Amino acid sequence: MPCYIRSMMAGFAATVVLSLLMLMKGAMGLMPELNPIAMLTDMAHTKMGMPASPMVGWVAHFVIGTVLWGILFKLLHSKLPGGTALVKGMSFSVLAWLMMMILPMPMAGAGLFGMKLGMMAPVMTLMMHLIWGAALGFVYSRLQADSSAAKAATD
User: Count of domains in the chain?
Assistant: First the structure.
């Protein structure tokens, strides 16, 4: 399987983990004002004229997590700090979090680092991104190992 497909599969799996965390956060009533899906939906609607449907936000969320971050993780993997893919994934997640804090958060009206939502917004999103990064790195390493084992078996 091509390396970019593996990296996008890892991005997808990590985005599923992050999505489950977001749904659990919402179900517990924690920081309802911090809703990335609603933010993405609103941005797509107001800035691109897309329908104001949460499905638009969810699709954007998965495209960003799977394609953008999945491929970027593969491209930066060898340059990221850490000795294992799991640690590299967590290192990468800090980059993804930082990008979210300085680009989409202000665009969505939440301010730089989401500070208009309060101090918990950047802290909670960082924790969720670190878990996302751990999942990204873990799945990526497993897919790499499976690919290496399959290649060795055919040689």
Answer: 1
Residue 40's CB is within 10 A of a number of other CB atoms, namely: 22
The model's pTM is 0.89
In a domain, 72, yes or no: yes
In a domain, 153, yes or no: no
Q: What is the span of the domain harbouring residue 76? A: 3-147
Amino acid, single-letter form, for residue 58:
W
CA 147, chain centre distance (Å): 23
- DSSP secondary structure of 32-86: TT--HHHHHHHHHHHHH-----HHHHHHHHHHIIIIIHHHHHHHHGGGSSSSSHH
CA 70 – CA 28 distance, rounded (Å): 29
Show pLDDT as tens, one digit a residue, over the chain (155 residues).
678 899 999 999 999 999 999 999 999 999 888 899 999 999 899 888 988 899 999 999 999 999 999 999 999 999 999 999 999 999 999 999 999 999 989 988 899 999 999 999 999 999 999 999 999 999 999 998 876 666 666 65
86 located within any domain: yes
Nearest-angstrom CA–CA distance, 48 and 75: 29
Asked if residue 12 belongs to a domain, the reply is yes
